[in-house]
Amino acid sequence: MAASVFCGGKVLRTFSRSFQGKNAKNVFSRYASTSQKKKAAKDSAPTRTARNIVLVEGVRTPFLMSGTSYADLLPHDVQRGALEGLVSRTGINKDAVDHIVIGTVIQEVKTSNIAREAALSAGFSDKIPCHTVTMACISSNQAITSAIGLVASGQCDTVIAGGVEFMSDVPIRLSRPLRKTLLSMNKAKTLGARLGLLSKIRPGYLSPELPAVAEFSTGETMGHSGDRLAAAFGVSRKEQDEYALRSHTLAHKATSAGNLEDLIPYKVPGRTQTVTADNGIRVSSPEQMAKLKPAFVKPHGTVTAANASFLTDGGSACLIMSEDKALAMGFKPKAYLREFVYTSQDPKDQLLLGPTYATPKVLERAGLTLEDIDVFEFHEAFAGQILANLKAMDSDWFAQNYMGRSSKVGVPPMEKFNTWGGSLSIGHPFGATGVRLVTTAANRLLKEGGKYGLVAACAAGGLGHGMVVERYPS
């Protein structure tokens, strides 16, 4: 019954039929015990440019649930904190930065080029060019790869890439009829003309247009899409709750162990308060999670507030340089930034499957296999989205029918997968998460002694991103 309720499209019905029966085992339990035999790691991943490009350092402000300690700020205030934290952490001279690029999704209209406003407020020279990019939930991934392009082309040696999202105060528009009336009043030359325009305003004009986390092309919220995807791949509510509990538990452990070292304290402007920790990590119990009602598809949905990422405020920033420049300035890089890819699928039926498509492509470009990867950092939009991707990656049928591949991608071992928590627990400021993923992958490689990390993420519009990072040698 669940499949018939959720699977509105032909493609999803096909998914659902294929993933029933023997394929509908507890996907979390299966992958939690997966341990693939590791092949000998390659000496080094190839680079396609004449320059090795490195991640020197990455930082982020604490990621906070929207409406909490950052609520009275503007987005560029939060991004400024990330930029200042990066400068403090690295000690880099601000004048040594050649370019700054920042990702964001829901733009504050007063600071449309938020990269520029945040940089100026953080004390960077007005001679440093800055630009802003947007690519839904992979916006700061795009900021990083834009920085890579600037360095690889020889245009720059030193670039700061980052991202910010501020869900506590999103722009709310007046209705279009009211906007048109008010704009016409600006052109009216007489009082009578203005009064005439005012007389045309109707009560319905006063209803505001509220922003929605929804696909423009389909009108469907991402949560609804997550519900449909989980149903299509036979991912149960219990499996989703188990995975979400895993994320929160691992994030709590990583926080207690001091592993989330990308986090920097943030002094809230205008207050005596200094925020020092993420505030969305909640280690609950299966019983408590099971009590929550569906958040999107009611009454039969499986996505709830407990197994979905929450609306989050936060900013991130990282320092990207050519290797020779970094060494000349006395820096010890964390990782090489190797290959990356972007993918795009149908935004209705395959909205959240970006990791499935990006993983094999980026591995092939890097000349690596899944077994060569020591650290996996995948964006967690919803627990159901992660588990559906794992099932798709583990399916020969899906690979052959939808990816044009002869065999399945393969499944990341869970002992290497998001072991310090993820977006479900740490938080997901849309524009900032990409930097967190890449920095966490690099930090895990250093902590665990691994060589290669793989970052993957989905995004609105059916977009996806994959990147290989390589630990910088001791």
Automatic annotation (TrEMBL):
Residues 332-471 form the Thiolase C-terminal domain. GO terms for biological process: fatty acid beta-oxidation. CDD domains: thiolase. PROSITE patterns: THIOLASE_1, THIOLASE_2, THIOLASE_3. It is found in: Endoplasmic reticulum; Mitochondrion inner membrane; Mitochondrion outer membrane. Its main location: endoplasmic reticulum. GO terms for cellular component: endoplasmic reticulum; mitochondrial fatty acid beta-oxidation multienzyme complex; mitochondrial inner membrane; mitochondrial outer membrane. Pfam families: Thiolase_C, Thiolase_N. It catalyses: hexanoyl-CoA + acetyl-CoA = 3-oxooctanoyl-CoA + CoA; decanoyl-CoA + acetyl-CoA = 3-oxododecanoyl-CoA + CoA; tetradecanoyl-CoA + acetyl-CoA = 3-oxohexadecanoyl-CoA + CoA; octanoyl-CoA + acetyl-CoA = 3-oxodecanoyl-CoA + CoA. GO terms for molecular function: acetyl-CoA C-acyltransferase activity; acetyl-CoA C-myristoyltransferase activity. Residues 53-324 form the Thiolase N-terminal domain. Mitochondrial trifunctional enzyme catalyzes the last three of the four reactions of the mitochondrial beta-oxidation pathway. The mitochondrial beta-oxidation pathway is the major energy-producing process in tissues and is performed through four consecutive reactions breaking down fatty acids into acetyl-CoA. Among the enzymes involved in this pathway, the trifunctional enzyme exhibits specificity for long-chain fatty acids. Belongs to the thiolase-like superfamily. Thiolase family. This is Trifunctional enzyme subunit beta, mitochondrial. It comes from Acropora cervicornis (Staghorn coral).
